[in-house]
TrEMBL record:
Residues 10-108 form the HTH hxlR-type domain. Gene3D superfamilies: Winged helix-like DNA-binding domain superfamily/Winged helix DNA-binding domain. The keyword Transcription applies. The lineage of its organism: Bacteria, Pseudomonadati, Pseudomonadota, Betaproteobacteria, Rhodocyclales. Pfam families: HxlR. Keywords: DNA-binding, Transcription, Transcription regulation. This is Helix-turn-helix domain-containing protein. It comes from Uliginosibacterium paludis.
Amino acid sequence: MPYNVYSRNCPARLVLDRLADKWALLVIGSLREGTLRFNQLRREVDGVSQKVLSQTLKKLERDGIVARTALPTVPVTVEYALTTLGTTLAETIEHLSSWAESNMEEIQAAQARYDRRETATVAG
């Protein structure tokens, strides 16, 4: 059965929903460089809470994008890495991240123009 994300019942929409989450994108992008432990990942993704990072990793693991490995140390050490599927996605995310960074000034200028126009409309 072919998938069509524009169709209401397409399961691919769930994947898009997951990828619309900034934390998921940032985690995947961070893991692009290689395997990281939980706290390393938390430092890498500045601003993410422990709870949100844990939830995000579980969702990405469930989707087959991230692999979790528990090492038999005291205390247990947990490492996260991209799967083959996750690596292909990370390449796409890299392009999206680069686009956002490269176009940030233009986006901010557009936002400022819009905000001035909306303020003038409300005031007028």
